[in-house]
Amino acid sequence: MHFSPTRLTTPLAAAALGAMALTGCGTDSEEAAADGTLQVAAAFYPLEFVASRVGGDRVEVTTLTGPGTEPHDIELTVAQTALVGEADLVLYQDSMQPIVGDAVEQTADGATLEVEEVIDFIPFAEEHDHAEDEHAEDEHAEEEEEEEEEHDHDHGDEDPHFWLDPARMATVAEAVASELGDIDPDHAEEYDANAAALVEELDELDAAYSEGLANCERDVVVVSHDAFGYLGDRYGLDIHGIAGLSPDAEPGPADIAELQELIDAEGVTTVFSETLVSPATAETLAQDAGVGTDVLDPLEGLSDETADEDYLSIMRSNLASLQEANGCQ
Fold first, then answer.
1. Edge to edge, what strands does the sheet with 220-225 contain?
2. What are the residue boundaries of the structural domains of the chain, listed by start?
3. Is the pTM here over 0.85, yes or no?
């Protein structure tokens, strides 16, 4: 994995390093060592969820992406950058949040786990890319496509939203247990047991999806942005995003027209918006197409509405929404 140190601004990095120098190795870390609690920095919610479940009472997990915040475009504060340097373990995903990868490279003194090192990623589906030949006929559309490519550039050619596949989440859980066991070998068996319990729940979730989506009237799903490729890949859904991999990307007129035709041809009943970003585009498409709307949560973070839920409960809510929209038996 290669990182670009220029993505973390020099003043921020310098300030963070200065703060760390003033505090030595970090008071919080020293207190954690004294009471046996490990400090874990998790880049965004799915990683926070895994770390909390696997670490249990023996870890204190701090997420770098706060509730209600869209994780694709976060900016780290000086305190957060210092936390990355002081944590016993940092969990992150460079393709999702390259600025965190830069902070890890420049400041991290403890153990780190880049999830791309332990799981396989799938390519961003070519059929969901916006057709270049259509945009070539319209100069304005070409500019929109270039802007979208810039938004999606940091993701490279792979879809970063791995956590929507419960099997890949299980792999991460086992990797986190291994890292925590290396840091704290006296309690390695406890971390392994916690991971095994979580993996069992994830296996049950996987089975619920496989059974719940096995007999449906349709398999086409229209969503706000292309965050659900892993869900489609694992459970045989044909996912079409209004925007690209980044929820900030704006679709062009040709994209909207193509989706309207798809909705009509496939009998799609629902256009899904999501949490953390505006539902306006999805709602407009649904209104123009004469179909309903619902929410499909990409689980990039918790919102005010989902603050009392967790990864497992939200994934089951997503399943129920998909079953209703696609006429599943």
1. 238-243, 220-225, 270-273, 292-295
2. 5-121+160-205, 126-157+213-325
3. no
**Token reading at 87:** 């944590």
Can you state the angle between helices 311-325 and 188-212, rounded to 10 degrees? 10
CA neighbor of 114 nearest in space, from 94, 134, 128, 100:
94
Average pLDDT over residues 264-272: 97
The DSSP letter of residue 126 is G
Q: For the structural domain made of 126-157+213-325, what CATH number should be given?
A: 3.40.50.1980
What 3-state DSSP class applies to 124? coil
Q: Do domains 5-121+160-205 and 126-157+213-325 have the same CATH topology?
A: yes
Residue written as token pair 């679709």: 251
Checking if the pLDDT of 50 tops 60, the result is yes
For the packed helices 98-107 and 10-22, what is the interaxial angle rounded to 10 degrees? 40
With vertex at residue 297, the alpha carbon angle to CA 291 and CA 301, rounded to the nearest 5 degrees, is 150
User: Across the chain, how many H-helices and E-strands are there?
Assistant: 13, 8
What is the predicted pLDDT for the residue at 248? Answer: 61
Q: In the CATH scheme, what is the code of domain 5-121+160-205?
A: 3.40.50.1980
Helices assigned H by DSSP within the chain:
10-22, 27-35, 45-55, 78-86, 98-107, 132-135, 139-153, 166-183, 188-212, 229-235, 253-266, 280-289, 311-325
Structure tokens, 325: 């929209």
Host H or E run for residue 195 = helix 188-212
Torsion, Cα 237 241 247 249, to 10 degrees, reads 150
The one-letter amino acid at 148: E
Whether the pLDDT of residue 228 is over 90: the answer is: yes
